[in-house]
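ENTRY TYPE: protein
WANTED: fold as tokens:
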Amino acid sequence: MKAELSIWSLFVNASLIVQMIMLLLASISIGSWWVIAKKYMVLEAAKNAIDQFEDDFWSGIDLASLYARIQRQGEEVRGMEAIFLAGFQEFLRLRSQPTVDPESVVSGAQRAMRATGSRELDELDMYLPLLATAGSTSPYIGLFGTVWGIMNAFIALGATQQATLAQVAPGIAEALIATAMGLFAAIPAVIAYNRYAHDVDRLANRYETFMEEFSNILQRQSYSLRRG
């Protein structure tokens, strides 16, 4: 009986619809774990990059030297470094124009930083909607497989004169496996989505805080240079 009710035998003997649902849920689960692993590496790298940049930025280093060093990295610049690069680059460009007042210089740098910050957050948010979709839809897909399996079990039961547990058990087990697979795909996706969404919000707050602090620094430099 154990061999007959193994997961593989139940999958092989399941109806085509239930087999397709199981394969779909397996694909969703594999895709979710790929996204979970990828986003973990991306977010950990972003956290480490922020920590390293803040250590450099608040170490007292000359902003022009920091700007030149980051600029040499080219397309590899990401996260807070990209925000700093965009803001300081716009600050230098507007400051070189004699007709631009200090407030316009700072506001221009702020706009450049916010635009870059939005792009960086879009990168961090990438694939997170897939986890949300997998977490919200997988149980319903599994439930559909459950309903279909139970329906087939009762149809087969109605065609027999005498019902036995051996006749009902495969169909019920088939239905329950679809439910289990739906939960197996959904639970990790929901947990990971909530965790990563929280991490992205924390990174967004750190970006916002840095932009405010850096804007104050640029404002002081802009007014001091104008007075000088």
